[in-house]
Every structure is written in C-alpha cells, then in structure tokens.
Design brief:
Layout lengths: L4 E2 L14 E9 L2 E8 L4 E7 L9 E4 L10 E10 L2 E10 L2 E9 L6 E2 L16 E10 L2 E9 L6 E7 L5 E3 L18 E9 L5 E8 L5 E8 L7 E2 L17 E10 L4 E10 L2 E10 L6
Antiparallel strand pairs: 1-20, 2-3, 3-4, 4-5, 6-7, 7-8, 8-9, 10-11, 11-12, 12-13, 14-15, 15-16, 16-17, 18-19, 19-20
Length: 293
Amino acid sequence: MERFRKYENNPVLGGPELGTCFDVYVTRENGRYRMDFSWRPKKSLAVTFSDDGIHWEKPQITLEFNEESGWEDNLNRNCVLKVNGKYMMWYTGQARGHSYIGYAESEDGIRFKRVINEPVMVSEYPWEGFSVMNPCVLYDEGKFKMWYASGETIEPNVLAYAESDDGIHWKKSIINPIFTKEEGNIYEQDRVGGCQVIKTDDMGYLMFYIGYETVEKAQICMAHSDNGITQWKKSSLNPIVTPDAGTWDADACYKPSFLWNEEEEKWMLWYNGRNNLDEFVGYVTKKGRQLFD
C-alpha cells in the first residue's frame, strides 16, 4: 500500500517572519483551501488561503485573545465549519493552567465574534484533568458532533466525544473517553491527542490523531469506526508521519488535518512539526484512496 510522503520543500507555513504556527484545520471551499491555525506569537487564531495547499497567502487574525475573560489569555486549537451560510468556530482558550472550549461566529469567515462570554465546554470529570481542548466538529445527521482532547494542559491524554443540537450546549458521551492509548503500540504508548474526524461513505468515520511515544516525541496515526464512537480500528500503516532527525520536524509531528482530493485521487494532510521550540506547518500526500487493509 502506498505510504504518505512529505513534501520536499516543507515547511509550507511558518518561519522567522511568522513565528510558530500550529494545530491547523484545513477545509476546501469554492476550489480554494482554507487553513485555520494557531498563531503563537499573537496568542490568537488566524486564517490563510491557498490555491494548491502548498503556497499560502498572508495570514489574517480571525479571533484575538481576551485576558479580561479569565479563560482566554491564549487562543489556539480551533476548527471552523460553514453551516447554512454561517461560519461557526470552536476554539481553545487557555489561562491559569487550564484549557476550555469556546464558540464564535462570522458572516464572512474572517471576522469572528464570540456568541457567549463563557466557555461552551469545561473539564468536569477526573479523566478530563485540567483541560478540554482541540475540538473537531462535524454537522452530521442534523446534529453537531464533537471529538475533543482532554487531560493535561501541555499535551492531553485521551480523546472524547459529545453531541449538540445548536453547537453551544453539549452533552458528553457517558462512555468517555472513547479513544485512549494502546498498550503495546510504541508510537502511542504514552498518550493520544488532538485529532480530526471526517465521515466517508466507504470507510465510515476516519480519524487522524497524534500518538505520543513520549510526551516529547509525537507522530501521526489513523483509525476508523463505523459510528465514530466505538470499535476504532487502527491502520497497519501507523504511524503514518514521523519525525525526521536533523530537520525542521526532528522532535515531533503534531495535530493532523486532512482532505481527500477527488480530482487528483490523493489524500492531502497538513501537520505541525517541532524542532526544539520552533513549530511550523508541513504537508504530506498519499496517492490512492486505500488507507486500511
């Protein structure tokens, strides 16, 4: 089976001028690619656009941090959906060692406004630790479905699931966490983290996620499930993106975002790689649709 291959001129976003860019969420609209990402030097969320997924325009801030709120000293780890002509954003606010999930809306997809001043999701259970973060939301079967990470604040430990009728009031699954590290798999023996999920006709729900060999060494993995909640089956290709010694992603490969390109019959995947304290965005592809044996 064809494996994922890194773009030879990575990274495609980030560098001395922009600084650290991480935890991206890529969508496609009207033939163009939209990348929402976390912009660490600005402590805010931003967006950039591309015609090919490789060459990206100058970023624009979509939502700024708000220290007055008490829970948004830093903003990061967001996702954006367009539903019924409205752009909906779920994002992570961080303060005082905790992480929370907030919600904002936009008419143009650039200027977002908070709908409420409090988080729409907070840590409530022992397994959620200090943080809920990195929301991935789908609008599916008339409801909003969220997969999120929780646990420790720097790097979360498990993945969980919740549903909502309006995107604001959420009901967490009673069988959470739905996805945890697997003993015996060295590439995720420490923990699992930030994911993206999409729904397909042929493979059910696909999840690309972070597997942590140690808290410092991360790589990208994938799994699928018929219902998006239980009986996740992991790919024999795991891990699909790994650090390369001596390069820009030498220490870790984090938070994947992926799309199927029907025209070119290839998977497109973006992630943030880390070398020491620097994190930039890279790009990988895989020819052919098959992902699992």
